[in-house]
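Retro notes, item 3 of 5
We never archived the inputs for the L-rhamnitol complex last cycle. Fixing that now. Sequence and ligand:
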Amino acid sequence: MSRFEEAKERYASLGVDVDAALQAASEKAVSIHCWQGDDVTGFDSKGGGAGDGIQTTGNYPGRARNFEELKADFLKAASLIPGKKRINLHACYAVFGTGEWVDRDRIEYRHFAPWVEFARKNGFGIDFNPTCFSHPMVKGGMTLSSPDPAVRRFWIDHCKATRRIANEIGAQLGDRVLNDVWVPDGLKDVPADRLGPRLRLKAALDEIFAEPLPHVIDCVESKVFGIGLESYTVGSNEFYMGYAASHPGVYNLMDTGHYHPTEVVSDKISALLCYFDKIPLHISRPVRWDSDHVVLFDDELKEIMKEIVRNDALEKVLIGLDFFDASINRIAAWTVGARNVQKALLWALLQPNAKLKTLQDEDAFTEKMVLMEEAKTLPFGDVWKKYCEMQGVSADESWFKEVQTYEKEVLSKRGLSYENS
Ligand code: RNT
Ligand code: ZN
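Structure as it came back at the time:
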């Protein structure tokens, strides 16, 4: 009997159907953010990198500097990651023709048509985001909630443009596209007025979401604080939760790095499931703050996946990734993080969830603890290996050799990390 067959028997003894788990894992799409490949730089800035509301740290050589490089790098990573994939794009990744440039309030679908072609060719879905940061129109740390009507107008028009682009992408791919509104708006020091900016943000969102667009899934993303904006965040958890709850069709996206350090998103999923039929996620790894480290196969990631699986929410929870480490090989960063998400998903699908739930409901807490602990050392590795083989990717660390070769042949020939081309 092969190791996989043995593992299957062991899982079956606890009521777990391994084949069904493998099938379910292969059907669930994960939206992989394009911005790990170039440190959230994008193609639309005239000479600058990320700034004004977002930060990356590290200067590992070989960052993608243009559309061709980013596509090639994304494909390399995707070839090492099992499962169904979507590519999560930001508006700052507009592809302009030679000599062409328009500001963010004027972008159109045609600037993203090359991405749609890329996605179609490779069987990826697409998700989208307005880019309300790293731009001179971020004034005093504010965008949609700025006291300056000209600043608000610019960002409202930008967000409206992104919804139309997302809608057309969806129409082209016969799909619905998640469009995530996140703004950095906040204040460094003690506010004199907390309500004004929030009312302005609410009015701006109402205008942005006014147009019905059938191919768009709208969502808003809250945050606790940002660097340089430590005292006040306009788009806080309560603000957006209230907004989403009172605006059908607008969902509340949870980023795992956007809560107080002892809060966990795994506990919030079931709370939101009581009220929403969709829960978009940004899976990241905060280290002491919203640091966006590469996602590891850790307890919280496993707990998040368990919540999705055991609440039968695979259709409702939209899994997206959001991390960007510029201090290590970026293709490896993408691959490690996305493989871990796939791994945790399969791991959760293989837990004796039904049995554990029964034990909880019967107040059999001792037995529940015993089984939960035993489940941690079930022969998961043998099933993961099988899954990777079925998906045509390596099951062990040997994928990294391919990344090393790519680094030697491609990445090392690029210019310095802060140069654009
Ligand atoms: C920032 C938010 C946001 C961004 C991306 C690039 O704190 O998490 O989602 O990371 O839009
Ligand atoms: Zn995020």
